[in-house]
Each structure stands twice: as C-alpha cells, then as structure tokens.
Fold this sequence. Notes:
76% of the residues lie in helices and 0% in strands. The protein has helices at 10-40, 44-52, 66-82, 89-106, 122-146, 150-172, 177-183, 188-210, 215-222, 224-244, 254-299.
Amino acid sequence: MENYNRIEDLKNYTVKKVKTIVLPFFFFAFSSIVLNFVRTRENLPVNLVLVLRGCVRNSFFADALWFLTCLFVTEIAFKIIKSIKLPNRKSFIVFTSFVFHFVAKNLMKPSPVVSPSWIYNIDSMFYYLVFFSLGYVIYPYLLKLFSLDANTKKLVFCILLVISSTYTVAVFLDKNEPLKILDSILILGDVILIFKTFILILFNLVLAKLLENANFLAKIGRETLYLCGNEYIIKSLLPYLLAKLGILISFESLLFVLVYNFFIIILLVKAFIPLEKRMFEFILERLFICKNIVLRKRKY
C-alpha cells in the first residue's frame, strides 16, 4: 500500500492523483483515439465524449483505460472514508466499503458488474472499493509476516502457496462447485465472493514474493499503470507498422502469443515508458510555471 501511514490533506492528495493518474489517462486516451481514427476512421466526436466521461468500462475500444479513472475515484473515495476520525476506524472503513459493494452488486440497476454506466466508473468503484480497503487493513499483518524468521516464513509461505494455488487451479478448471452454491445466498454470497477473490490475490502475492529478487519483473510491476495505458496503443501500432514493412503476425501458437506479449512488455518498460515519464515531467513543469505566473499577476 502506497504511503500507508502518510498524513496528507485531501486537496494535496487529489492534486497528486490528478498528476499521476488523470493526466496520463488523458494522454493515453487521446493517443488511442488518434491511432484508432487513423486505422479505422471511427466516429471521432463520439470517442472524445467517451474519454471525457472517463472511458466507462465496456464502452471504449481501448479496454484497459477504464481502470485508470476507476482507480482515481477509488483512491479519492478511500481517502475521504479514511479521513473520518472514529475509534474503530479500520472497522468503519471495511464496513462502509462492504456496504458499497453490496449496493453495487445487489441494488444498482444496471449492475456495474455487468453494465457499468456512471461517469469515471464511479459505479465500478462502489463494487471494487472493498478490495482496496481490505488491502489497507491487511497490509500491516503482511509486514509482520515478512519480518518473521527465515524458517517460520518459509513454512507460512509454503502453506499459503498450497492453499492459494490449489484454489486457483480449481477456479481455472471450473471445479469450485461448493463455493459456487454459497454465492447465491444474500450477503453471505457477497462475503464468499470477496473471500474467493482474496485467495486468488493471495496466490499472486505469494508468487510475487518468491520472485522479488527478479529486478526486471519488479520493475514491470511498478509500471502497471503505464502498461494499462499503453496496451491498446502498442498492440495496435506494432502490428500496423510491421504490416507496412510486409511482416504479418500470426497468433495461432500459444507459445508465440506469450513470447510476443513479453516482448511488448520489454519494449514498453525499456523504451516507451521512460520517454513518456520524461514528457509528463516536462508538461507538469510547464503547467507549474504557468500557474505561478498567473498567481503572481493576480497578486499584483
């Protein structure tokens, strides 16, 4: 969890998230629109409106961009809930986010699980906020787990790996019928759904811990937002440029798909993303300078 114990007022926090999430989102979205228009001549005004609405999930051709706006409103909503001072603040955070989840899953029409429609994916935020909040609550216990002595930590991680990997394989093979039956029970089904999702997250967490010394993989993990933003751009642009050179790509082999996607990730992490970050820093510096000039003029 980023800045777990940092105390920061809502205004500064929101400005920071606008800089690190919203501005990159608009860059990726407008870049995707231009590329899509060049390739398909799709309706440009319609796509611009979709971007201004935050690329609502399942409505925009660049599928991954909804995550950025949903993450932004989730972080702001979480910050507001977290700032409410109560004796049992963590319990309040979990309870409130669970209520949001219950409302989104059972009461909202249309359901954001199937047909999200609210601007900036706010309805999806209602559904996913509970996972964000539980991550915040569980984080200090994970730190304690990581600080255990080597032998105890190995034993705990082996147990967690067996449990989480067994369930992950069962989900992959569609062999988790007992928990599926419980899903249909009101409220209990919501709790079971969250529990099942966390087992899958736990599998990824244990796997990440086992691979923590692989520096390049850690770097890939740190660039998740930029990878999401660039997904449509690179997956459309690269085959388009290769086709112009007379090179056609066939995705019939699973092994080739895996190698090709890993190559794309390397290309993004090594070339595209560092360039984009320098560009964003330049733009923010210019905006900051312009803002100071305007403030000085108002002062005098």
